[in-house]
Amino acid sequence: MPNAILASRRGVFAALACGCAAAAGLGRGSAFAASPAASTSVSADEALSRLKSGNAAFVGGESCTPAGGHGHIAPLAAGQAPFAVVVGCSDSRTPPEHLFDGKLGELFIVRVAGNTVDHTALGSIEYGVAVLGAPLVLVLGHSGCGAVEAATKVVTKGATYPGSIGQMVEPIVPAVRKAQGMKGDLMANAVRTNVELVLEQIAAASPLVAQARDAGKVRLAGAVYDLASGKVAFLD
Ligand SMILES: [Zn+2]
After folding, report:
1. By residue range, what is the domain housing residue 53?
2. Which residues are annotated as a binding site for Zn(2+)?
3. What is the pLDDT of residue 67?
4. 10 assigned to some structural domain
5. How far is the CA of 37 from the centre of ligand 1 (A)?
6. How many whole angstroms from 199 Cα to the centroid of ligand 1?
7. What does the pLDDT look like over 21-39, one tens digit per residue?
8. 211 alpha carbon to ligand 1 midpoint, in Å?
9. Is residue 17 assigned to a domain?
10. What DSSP line would sit under 67-81, residue for residue?
11. Does the residue 110 lie in any domain?
């Protein structure tokens, strides 16, 4: 038996052994691209549905670490066709592949503390949408975000930070100021508002993404991950 097939079968058996049909390629569809030019056929609605079912699997303890092994890795060398771009926080507790039970080649991820977007991040998003053909851009905030908390202290206590941390926090300050006028918990409101403002910023700063959205080729969505429950709440 060729090694690739053997490795692939081993991967399937390993995935089945841990009770994860999706990781064995038996549940949600495969993202393997036949060529670099072949983008995903997954629609925006299907992409959102996959993220939701993936998070349900994560919360339920049914997800697996994406399978490795030659049979899973090598086919993706020919190209990638991710079904979503995820803009998330650097927080070590929020890796999108885990939260959404994502496999290799499925999620194109931009991560920076506070899930904000600068020019480099915007270019990465545009690459995911325009070049790779991802039909969904998800901005993902999370509860207890240290970057948002730092921005809150800038606004409420005049806090300052060493090095470049202040510049990292600065883009979140407008969300905190807006959240100050809302009822409820300031931190929770600031996290959600930051997601909403980043979504607006992406559309405003990137004609490429805005045009793709208006043409129905990409959907922009926001969500907040809860550290304690593991659940992702979608804002739409
Ligand atoms: Zn964070």
Report:
1. 31-234
2. 89, 91, 142, 145
3. 67
4. no
5. 34
6. 16
7. 333 333 333 343 334 447 8
8. 29
9. no
10. P-SHHHHGGGGG---
11. yes
